[in-house]
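Q: what sequence does this backbone want?
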């Protein structure tokens, strides 16, 4: 069962300078195709053995391995966002670490009608072999809302109620990793975001 307060917004959590720093660093990184795991409950991974399936997901990605090339403490800021979300939402989660961050790019395309990611979750209820699980997931909006059309992040709670995440640049959105979510097709322009997953014990 996903949490009642399954999503938390931190509007404009990252400053314009910090967002630009993300983009500058991303411009130095290699590009890969967006990949999916072996089931809809597998989160994305920087693993070339994972699958490329254009019927499920079409995007390009870059992987942030560390923040040594950034002009601010990226991981420290993300840990602070997780702390704030826990306080605001009443979450009692603990996490051991944050996986490598994924800089994700969704573009319009005349040939493919735009990049997208269909309904999926980042984690199921089954623990990994070491007794931990993905929880929570977080997305940081790196584009201005006028930079693209379509491309909304949509989430569904267990009753089927839809939630459209805000599009403001610099906003951090955190949610229960078991929540169904998708990125709608980008019909114009380019949408960029920075996605991450925390790893730790099961949510309470």
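A:
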């Amino acid at each position: 069962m996903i949490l009642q307060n399954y999503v938390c917004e931190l509007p404009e959590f990252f400053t314009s300078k910090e967002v630009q720093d993300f983009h500058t660093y991303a411009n130095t990184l290699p590009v890969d195709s967006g990949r999916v795991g072996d089931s809809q409950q597998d989160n994305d991974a920087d693993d070339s053995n994972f699958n490329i399936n254009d019927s499920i997901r079409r995007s390009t990605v870059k992987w942030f391995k560390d923040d040594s090339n950034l002009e601010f403490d990226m991981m420290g800021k993300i840990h602070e966002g997780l702390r704030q979300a826990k306080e605001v939402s009443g979450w009692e989660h603990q996490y051991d670490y944050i996986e490598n961050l994924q800089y994700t790019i969704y573009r319009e395309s005349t040939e493919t009608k735009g990049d997208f990611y269909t309904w999926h979750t980042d984690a199921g209820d089954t623990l990994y072999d070491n007794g931990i699980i993905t929880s929570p997931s977080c997305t940081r909006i790196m584009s201005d809302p006028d930079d693209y059309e379509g491309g909304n992040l949509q989430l569904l709670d267990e009753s089927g109620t839809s939630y459209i995440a805000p599009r403001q640049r610099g906003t951090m959105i955190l949610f229960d990793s078991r929540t169904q979510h998708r990125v709608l097709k980008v019909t114009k322009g380019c949408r960029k975001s920075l996605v991450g997953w925390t790893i730790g014990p099961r949510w309470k």
